[in-house]
Each structure stands twice: as structure tokens, then as C-alpha cells.
Amino acid sequence: MHALPTRIFLVLFIFSLICPSSLIAAPEQRIALVIGNSAYSSGPLKNPVNDSADMAETLKRLGFDVILKKNVAHRPMEEAIRDFGNRLKKQKGVGLFFYAGHGLQINGVNYLIPIGAKVDKETDVQFEAVNMERVLAEMANAENGLNIVMLDACRDNPFRSLFRSAGRGLAMISNAPTGTLISYSTAPNQVARDGSGRNSPYTAAILKRILEPGLTIEDVFKGVRQQVRKETGQVPWELSSLEGKFFFVPGETSRVKGEDVVSKMPPANDAEIPATEKRPSDVTANEIKRDGRFIAYDDGTVLDTSTNLMWASKDSGRDINWADAKIYCENYRGGGYTDWRMPKQNELAGLYDSSKSNLSRFHVTDLIQLQVPLLWASETKDSKAGTFFFKNGKLYWLRASESTRALPVRSVRVAAAERKDRPERVAETGAIEFFGMTSREITAEIAAQQGIATGLGVIIANVTPGSPADDAGIRTQDIILEVNRTKISSLKDYTKKMAAVKAGENVLLLVKRGHAKIYVVLKGLNR
What is the pTM of this model? Predict the structure, then answer.
């Protein structure tokens, strides 16, 4: 193997010194809208612009794609919320909304006050302010599974003397989408302090706690509450409908237990979508550009039609070590899919094209945006891991503790009728896989173990977790007797029947499980 050029090691080392924050990896797609309003004509505030700027910078370090808006008027604020919702719907993952500024409640409805709001009477608010329900509606429409709302907007109402129905602080929100945590800077119907330092006490506490590794989001806000109550006497408050664990910064313990991602929400009546290809049924990816064999879609994916590999349209955005790169790839949620992984060296090599050269002189299609030429691959040996260099098309081995970037990939399922799974392959492997279940011939030995006759069907040797077979309830040791009401006598029979299934068609299986026989439906596969 070639040795990695000294220049590359030097560049990576210098970059890690200059930008240490970029070494924090996000295991899933993370999108945040951060708004800070200070320059009010009535009741100006000192902290919110600082709070929003510091929060945005911290969230970027934590792997969030951040939309930052400061001192925003009504229409730009509405447009930012709409843009946030659209991006969250396309990219999925974790959504986060942070607001610092004036907020108020009228008859139990919370409003966020933009800059320039003209409020002379109570009825003006619904037209001049932004209803908090708008943010929650965008999150619900995105169906992304996990959302975080931080409201540092419980400062005293500057228009209070004009109103009769306004309460103090903000009202409790009771209709947020499932999978949402809402944090207030103080208890509902109470007023929070703006603070005398650069940041409000609430935001300052979040900025401190959010960077602590290994803390669940609940533990983060418990720490925030303890710190703020001790410093000011006010008590930050949370409402939560989360059903999994979320870590802003995964710790070693959480990684070992596999708990560093929490977009692990149970499916919401979408069992018909194969779990290994899970994406919202109402989101259609539209083709936006072609480059030879590559097709770019508006959901941030690029399909290589020659290999049936789908790639993320851009790299991880920050240099990370191999272990974090693996986490990033496996928990990437581009296009709504859940079966992303780290590519192999030969798969990365398949992207290399010496006839192409992007603005950085990397030899790869322009549809895939690479900020560095060196990408991680899945292969490892000893303490090193594979990489591919897009300037010279060579493979290198880099210490797994070093840092470079990752590009997620996934294998696109081909319609069964187009597969090359021919019976002759069965003789070579002794097994065949369809829909995430590996089936084997019932040999005399297996027949004796199961107390059945040979030639009865095929036996399931393995079921991939989250696959269509797993979703349908198929188990290992199940015996498939029929495919679409046609009896199966051998693995070759089974292969022919399954290979004849067209894309989008359901498959009806008669399964023997112990002494029982049951029918199982495998839902049809699309793209």
C-alpha cells in the first residue's frame, strides 16, 4: 500500500489546531433555526443578539446546519420559519428552534415579537407578531421524529399596559408534535431576567451544559435548571414527549451502548415502507440535474446509475475520526432513508473520474460536493483505516484516530424483476436473500432437526433488522411453503418465484412456524 503523503498529515494536523471545534461529529442530520431580537423600539433588550450568535456558533460545533437570524422583522421571520420547515421535511433528522427576544401570551396563545412590530392595542398582536404555533406546525409537517424548542422569551411584556387579556411570560404549550422537547427560560406564566452579562442566565447555562459529553438532553436541561435557579431564583421549565434518548455530544458510554442517536422514534403507521429504505410516503424526490451516469435529487442525494449506489450530495462538513465517521454515516438521514453506511474503498474509487475536475481539482462529479480530497472508507487493519484520495485516485491507510471527512452511501434496491439472482447462483452460495431475509434449502439434516420432510419449502436462516421481512414479522427458522399461493419445493423454485416479483408488488407468503401456518404479506418495494 502507498504511504500517506507527509503533506496531507501536516494539513490535517494544522487544521485540527486551527479549528478544533470541527472535530465534534454529529451522528445524524441536525438542522437549527436560531433567532435573536434585541433592537426593539419599545423595551430594547441587550442579550438576545449575543445569545443567538453564541448559540448558533455552539450548535455548528455540535453538527447542526444553522439558520441564524438577528433583529428580524415580521415577514423575514415568517420566511425563515418556512425555510426551516422545508429543509427539515427534506433532510429529516433532528430539528431545533431557539428564540431569544420578547414574547408574550394572549388568552393562552404564545406570540414571538419581531423587530418593528406596531402594537397599539391587543388585537394588533395576531397580525404583527409570529404565533408560536407556526413553528410547531412546521415541525409536525416535517415528520422528522425529534424536535427541540428553546424559548428565552419569557421577559416581561413591553406592551402589557395596553392589554387586558395578556398573562405574564409565556403559556404552557400542550399541542406540540410527538417527539418534541420544549424548554422555557422560566416556568410558564412567569417572567425571566434578561441578565447583566453578555448572555441571559438561561442561554449561558445552555451554552455550558450542551457541550458536556455523554449527557442525555434531559440531563442537559436538569443541569441548566440547577444553574439558573442557583444564580437567579428563576426555574427553567421543560415539557417533553420524547420517546428515545438524544445526546448533543455522545460520550464513550453512550456510544458503546448504541444510544448516541435518538431519531429512533417508532414508525407512525408507515409499516408499508421498508425500514431499510424508510422515507416519508408523501415526499417525492425530484431530479434536479444530471452528469453522465449521476442523477442529483432535491432531497440531497445523488444516484450513480451504473452501480445503483446512492450518495450524499456533500461530505460530513467537518473532519472527524474514523469511529465518528462510521457513526455519522450509519445515522445519516438524507432523503429520509435509514440504511446509510460508510463506503468501501472500491466504492469511493468508483466515484473517481480523472476526466472530471471540480473547483478544488478533485476528480469527482460536480453533483457531489467535497471540501477535502481525502475520505474515510470502511476497511480497517490494526489501528488504521482505509481512505481514498480524490486528487490522485489512490488508496491510503490512515490512523483511525486521525481526522478527515466522510461521505455516506447506501445501496439502492433494484426491482426484483431486474435482479440477476439466477438459480445457478443458488448452487454457488447455498442461500439467497430477498427483502432482507436469507433463505436456505431444507437439507436432510435441517429436515431431521425440524421434524419435517425435505422438499417442503425453504427455511429462513437470517432476517436483517429493520428490513421489509423484519417489518412483516418474518423470523429465523420460519419455513416458507408458498409464494403468492404457489407451492415451493426447493431453493431454486423459491428464487424463480421471488425474482419474478415486480417492483411495487406485494408478496403473499405461506409460512410454517412451529405447528402453525400463517400468511405474511411483504409490502411492495419502490425506489
Answer: 0.47
